[in-house]
Design brief:
Elements (H helix, E strand, L loop, with lengths): L2 E5 L4 H12 L5 E4 L7 H11 L12 H4 L10 H10 L8 E4 L4 E4 L7 H4 L2
Parallel strand pairs: 1-2
Antiparallel strand pairs: 1-3, 3-4
Length: about 120
């Protein structure tokens, strides 16, 4: 089983989600997205796997979002994905992907990950 977590180790929800994944016996690939921001194509892929518009991946309470002077139209998925790739703090976290299932979830609450790691 191939599972990837877009992880922020400073976020309690992200840490708990990672713990649930590991307790299920899965060793995920960990992408610390603040150190290695996803490119725009990856952001679009994540939105597709989550079955949401890119705007749904925004952390609207985050200062990077609230104070942005260069925020594109929220209905323009391509432009917004580019913006998120340059402003990864505004990306929802954690995002967990199970490639075999072709599915993803946002780990808020962390238990959302359970269907992706159940065997």
């Amino acid at each position: 089983m191939t599972v990837t977590i877009y992880h922020n180790p400073h976020c309690s929800k992200s840490r708990k989600t990672l713990e649930i994944i590991e307790q299920s016996g899965v060793q995920p690939s960990i992408v610390e997205y603040l150190k290695e921001p996803p490119d725009a194509d990856t952001v679009l892929r994540l939105a597709g796997l989550l079955k949401v518009a890119v705007a749904e991946l925004l952390r609207r309470g985050e200062a990077d979002y609230r104070e942005a002077s260069d925020l594109p139209d929220l209905n323009d998925d391509t432009a917004l994905a580019e913006w998120l790739s340059r402003n990864p703090r505004a990306l929802q976290r954690p995002i967990v992907v199970n490639d075999a299932q072709g599915a993803a979830v946002i780990g808020r609450p962390p238990e959302n990950v359970l269907p992706l790691v159940s065997r």
